[in-house]
Amino acid sequence: MRIIIVVFVILFVFSGCLTSYSKNNSYPVETVMSAGMSITIETKNGILTITAGNGFTRIYSWAGNSRSAVLWPRKERWNGSLGIYYPGVGNHWEKHDGITRGILEEGQLNFTSLDDLTKELSSYEENENLVFNDNGLCVFWSKTDGAGGTMTVFVWQLYVNHEKPQRIPGSRNDKIKITMGSST
Fold first, then answer.
1. DSSP secondary structure string, 10-41?
2. pLDDT, tens only, 129-169
3. What is the DSSP string of 121-163?
4. Are 46 and 61 in contact (CB under 8 A)?
C-alpha cells in the first residue's frame, strides 16, 4: 500500500510539472523556428524535415511518415540554451522506421568568437549526423533502430557575440534548406 501511495504522489507531482510546462509560457524562450517554418536536412540517415506547428509543436518527417511532439520550454539555461525540449519519455510514438521515441531539442547557442564556435563543431567533424549552414543554423539527427528505437534531433541557431555568423568553415549549405510557410 505504501508503494502505491508513493507512486501516486510521484505521478501527481510529475503531471503537475507537465501542465506547468505546457501552459506557462510567460518567461522568455529562445527558439529557432516560427510557426509554418520547415527545415529539411540530408544526412547519412536520409532526409528529415522538421516543421514548426503552432506554439511549441514540432513535426518530424522522415522515410515517408511523420511524428509530432509538443516541446517544453526551459525555465533556466541548460548547456547555454534557453530553448525548448522533449526528453523522450517512454515509447511515445507509434513505431515507424524502427523509431518509437524522440529526444528533441531546439534553442539558440551563443559563442564569444568564431574560433570557439568552430572548436565546438569540430567535435562533430567526423559525424555525418550534423549539418550546419554559413548563417549558423545547425541540426543534429541520429537514429537508433530496433525495438524501442530512438531518434535524437537537436535544432540550434548558433551566434557569435549575439549575431548570426556570415561564414562557418565546414558548412554544408547544400544539405540544409529552410522553407517559410503557413502554420500547421
1. HHHHHHHHHHHHHH---S----S--TT-EEEE
2. 899 999 999 999 998 876 579 999 999 999 999 999 999 99
3. HHTTTT-TTEEE-TT-EEEEEEEE-STTEEEEEEEEEEEETTB
4. no
Question: Do 176 and 46 touch, CB atoms closer than 8 A?
Answer: no
DSSP reduced 3-state for 112: coil
Q: Which residue in 129, 51, 59 sits closest to 96, CA to CA?
A: 59
20 dihedral zone (left: phi>0; alpha: psi -120 to 50; beta): alpha
CA distance 137 to 133: 6
Compute the distance between CA of residue 21 and CA of residue 121 in angstroms, rounded to an integer.
Answer: 30
Q: Output the pTM of the full model.
A: 0.80
Pairing, β 65-70 against β 130-132: unpaired
Specify the pairing of strand 149-160 against strand 99-111. Answer: parallel
